[in-house]
Amino acid sequence: MMSQPTNPHHVPHAGTELYDVRRDEVVVEPAPVEAQALKHGVLKRLVHRFSILGLIGLLMVAFWLLVAFIGPLVAPYKGGALTSTEIFGRYSAAYPLGTDYLGRDMLSRILYGARYTVGLALAAAVLASVIGTFFGLLAAVSGRWVDEILSRLFDALISIPSKVFALVVIAAFGSSIPMLMTVAAVAYIPGAFRISRSLAVNVMGLEYVQVARARGEGIFYIARVEVLPNMIHPMLADFGLRFVFIVLLLSGLSFLGLGVQPPNADWGSLVRENIGGLSEGAPAVLMPAVAIATLTIGMNLLIDNLRRRSRSHGGA
Amino acid sequence: MADRDMIEVKGLRVVAGAAPGPVTEIVKGVDFSVKKGEVLALIGESGSGKTTIALSLLGYARAGCAISGGSVRIGELEVLSLDAKGRRALRARTVAYVAQSASAGFNPARTIMDQVTEPALLHHLMTKEAARAKAIGLFRSLALPAPETIGERYPHQVSGGQLQRLMAAMALITDPAVVVFDEPTTALDVTTQIEVLAAFKKVIRELGTTAVYVSHDLAVVAQMADRIVVLNGGAVKENGAVAQVLDAPVDAYTRQLLAATRRPEAVLTLPPNLGKHVPPLLEIRGLSAGYGRIDRHGAPAVRVLDDVSLSIPRGSTLGVIGESGSGKTTLARVVAGLVDRARGEVLFNGEPLPAQISRRTPEQYRQIQIVFQNADTALNPSHSIADILGRPLAFYHHLRGSAAKKRMLELLDLVKLPAGIATRTPAGLSGGQKQRVNLARALAADPALILCDEVTSALDTVVGAAILDLLAELRRELGVSYMFISHDISTVRAICDEVIVLYAGHRVEAGQREVLAAPPYHPYTGLLVDSVPALKPGWLDARRDIVATALPAMGESADVAELCSFRARCPVRIDGKCNMTPPSLKKLPSGAEILCHHPVAELNRLQTVEATPA
């Protein structure tokens, strides 16, 4: 994995703006103890169900999800706090991931940024996949006209490049968290629709769906019970890809300065802010990029494993 | 050395799975030998290891399998001790393989000639010109039409039977010492199968090739082979000359296989006639249906069924026979409401049945159930068997909880499946078991009519026979009616009371089951009946003389839509009549109705003469 500090509590931070360690311990500590006991049984099952790569992916994604939730609680410094006089500092005991262009602790910046990157992308990806799948299914199971109208509508949407679309919308309405989420979701709904529709159309042609139709089942039963379970795995794989694309889109937007606005920052903004340190090989520009990479790679490993497992399961 | 066997297989063992995981032996020490110029048949049901053994002759084991022991000698070569390069050379010159699905074996983007000559050119055995000349010679030997030019076409431009023969040409182009045929005719219609078999037999005889013929069909094997090896569960059950295996089988399994092939005809149990007032369960009058856009006259762009009429009395079984493309599956789909009809009426229980499925009543849904051919795609892979059977119970009978469970167990018992199967998903069942679940789902509705679309076609002979027995038993016990769709005359004969014969969407013949037993019948029915291989050696050779005679000449067709659809292939067509005027409906002495120009006496004469040499 990556070089993450093992335990921020042991870091002797000198002085300024120290996060309340005690409260942190009270809140967080009991949970891992319980989880550990629980995890032992779960872990064994997981190891059985996933391949090594899938397990690594799962760990990476779970790690970042956890960070998105408790990141600010365990961060050694407050997110926007200026803590050091050294800019583009190297790895040190006080600043495990160095400092950024203003001398802020990079580790804390990344821990705070995870909430934006993971949370926003997750919400947008869930929205895009759920809405896309819903309309795709609807188009496949209902008659020709509904299908035609929906398909042409989404084709029109798909013809607008997602980055340009995002740029225009954000330039027009300004950047806010709900706006970013909506833009990312809308940009990726047509793709999800296309894929779910073609999967559903394939399944609709199969004989068990014909049997259900001949039985007199309604279209919603057919969509929900007969079709959806048989396209859920490819859709999950697609969700993973879409999540990754959205992370990249949001990071790209932030890199252009249209994403999450300072002083808050997602990982894309962190890369942009610290781009000046690139020539020095500063950790400030490397580490957020590593964070983006581990999240996307981890997600892909996990999804790939899900897909493979479902296939071998189907073949058994 | 001269009398040494061409192929010698000793103690061959093949395992599936790798060493740390579970290993299953799928071929358990098989021995056999084939003399030069001999044709050996490997016969058995799916899972018997016949294809695995055939592939080991090429020194090949499928992914996940490994040859674990024994020896395979072809000529002077020890196949299993060869390295990768040696095996490649072996496959280039010595052993060739003809696969079951020719359409999957050809690249659709290249011409046939390119692909047929490819093995010779790839291994630098001939110049391009020599290979072409040789291919054309092979096309001629395989009785392909237009041998000079067929090579210029692309695979989609020839029929399935022709493609299968072209695949044989591809295998034979390098003059291999041994050819392995792996179920080459299984996917073909009976009428096509016989042409392909005749072509294979001719070319094998002409070239003196040693061949291994893999099949599950004893009757086909009886025509092709000199010796038969019967396999079951990866072991040799019987090994002997064709006549001995067919007439005096030693092994119990061989006898079982023979019994399943030679099905005794079921005793006809006509339901008691309840007087004239009871309308037939299903009556179809003048039905036309098809796919594509509907034109101004209400006819679809592609017409699949044309003016089809039939009736199924309560409790009886109607067989629908025809080759692929004859519209038999569309017929079932129209009755089930899955395909719209263009014209005609469908009466169910004397009441009109709405064409659109959405306009039918729940009672009509319940009474008509459809069972598809392919149980793999007819059962939802993500549902358990309990879910699959539970849904119709809840949907039609509002059964839930323990009542539904009880009924489900009854249904499983009815189709002779163990109760433990309920928690499994379809992936965990065998083909025969899946087909039983498929049937049980239809029975869960308590239907009056079950539309069986080729329900046994995808199954092995023995398993298929068991399903047919089950159908007959269910009919006796529950009084359901079937519309039994099949391309296989012998299964239709085994289960049906009445039969209709479809050709290109037209009902060319309809009558009692006996119409299939003896002439006179419609020329197409005649062709179908005569194309079913008989379970005796030499049948094909006798048949071939009949097939070889050219069709009578016929001029241009008049522009009349209702002309006999079979005229293009009819061996007894009449110029000036068949291509000019539509045939009229005639009644045969047996009570059957046919669409043909020939008078009954004439048909009888023609068909009895034809049948004598066979």
Describe the structure.
The complex is a heterodimer of chains A (316) and B (614). Chain A is mainly α and 316 residues long. Chain A has a single domain, classed as MetI-like (MetI-like fold). In chain A, 71% of the residues lie in helices and 0% in strands. Chain A is built from 12 helices and no strands. In chain A, helix 3 crosses helix 4, helix 3 packs across helix 12 and helix 10 packs antiparallel against helix 12. The longest helix of chain A is centred in the middle third of the chain and has 36 residues. The N terminus and C terminus of chain A are likely disordered. By secondary structure, chain B is an alpha/beta fold. Chain B has 3 domains: 253 residues, Rossmann fold; 235 residues, Rossmann fold (3-Layer(aba) Sandwich); 89 residues, no CATH class. In chain B, the strands form 4 sheets. Chain B has an 8-stranded mixed beta sheet, with helices on both faces. A 6-stranded mixed beta sheet of chain B has the order 6-7-8-3-9-10, sandwiched between helices. In chain B, strand 17, helix 17 and strand 18 form a beta-alpha-beta unit. Chain B is globular and about 75 Å long. The two termini of chain B are 40 Å apart. The mean pLDDT of chain B is 84. Classes of the chains: A mainly alpha (316), B alpha/beta (614). Chains A and B meet through helix 8 and helix 12 of A and helix 12, strand 16 and helix 14 of B. Chain A: It holds the Pfam family BPD_transp_1. Chain A: Belongs to the binding-protein-dependent transport system permease family.
